[in-house]
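Appendix C reproduces, verbatim, an entry submitted by the partner laboratory led by Prof. M.T., so that reviewers can inspect both the input and the predicted structure.
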Amino acid sequence: MPAPVNLAQAIAVDGWFGRLGRCLWAPRCLVCGEPARSRLDLCPACEAGLPWMPPACLSCAMPLPQPAPGANAAAAGAPGPPRPSRVHQPRLCSACQHGPPPLSEVHAAFLYGFPLDRLLPRLKFHRDLAAGRLLAHAMAACFAGLARPDVLVPVPLHRARMRQRGYNQALELAHPLGRTLELPVHAGLLLRIRNTSAQSRLDADARVGNLRDAFVVAGRGAPPPHVVLVDDVMTTGATLHAAADALFDAGVDRVDAWICARAP
């Protein structure tokens, strides 16, 4: 079976062509259209409103209870990726303490809310690569200090969905993320062999059954020991857990997930 690739070959918006364009034409905010004044192509107001992920559970990326106001004043400051807190906080939520999921660590750059609820659908359904570049650079800023994996693996689409859409939004995030962090991207390591129903139409229990045996690892050689799955949104985690199970069955030692946004 051929490795999944994005079918429509577009010019990378984070490459030399994109840099030249930003020099010749004043960039506009990708959310509101006002002049952009940052590398993320956002105006100051929209950048200040980004819903950066607060301290969250290491296993499921759900936000943890926050300390009292003022307890972590040293971590406060200008808008941007969250900085480490000096206040001791639990690393796992109560649900993951009682029933640990298969992923070793899950990290999200944002909570799913405005303007992510506009930027991510534009990337996912309308191939807005400028939005993808913005989101990938934000992910890189958040994840640069994490344990470095052997490879980044975008969560794959089934070949029928790839033919219909023409590209995989997870791959569009993984490529600029890998370039920025100097990590290899292995898009063909994991295959989706079942054309499952759309997860967004199912409840939590149905999502788990919908993805049973949906993924397999390609090839017969030894897989890389540490894999990070890259995806756009995590809701229940069923897709990432099913992908992780397939990687573990193939002999991977550790599987993490780096996602753009965590849905509450």
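The longest strand covers residues 226-234. Additional entries are available on request from the coordinating office.
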